[in-house]
Design a protein that fits this description.
Layout lengths: L7 E5 L8 E3 L2 H11 L4 E8 L2 H8 L10 E9 H6 L1
Antiparallel strand pairs: 1-2, 1-3, 3-4
């Protein structure tokens, strides 16, 4: 059986961004996007990776890893997020 890591929130420029930033929770993912993403729209998603890939990244043997599972992905329009 394949072991999966914990669910974590990520923020990136779009759903294909292979260098998304890990964030503590959904609110932090939105805050990160508002502070760092260029443009009017960014993408957040709750995802998990294979435990094997997480360990390889922690050991510096891997720069990025694909998500094994995703949920709650959505594009955030910066102007609407600021207004809320």
């Amino acid at each position: 059986m394949t072991k999966l890591g914990k669910w974590r929130w990520y923020c990136g420029s779009d759903e294909t961004d292979d260098e998304m930033c890990e964030c503590r929770n959904r609110a932090e993912a939105i805050k990160y996007g508002l502070e760092t993403m260029c443009g009017d729209v960014f993408y957040i998603v709750e995802a998990r990776m294979l435990v094997k890939h997480e360990k390889e990244m922690a050991d510096g043997r891997r720069d990025t890893a694909p998500f094994a599972k995703e949920r709650n992905g959505e594009f955030i329009e910066a102007i609407k997020a600021i207004q809320q």
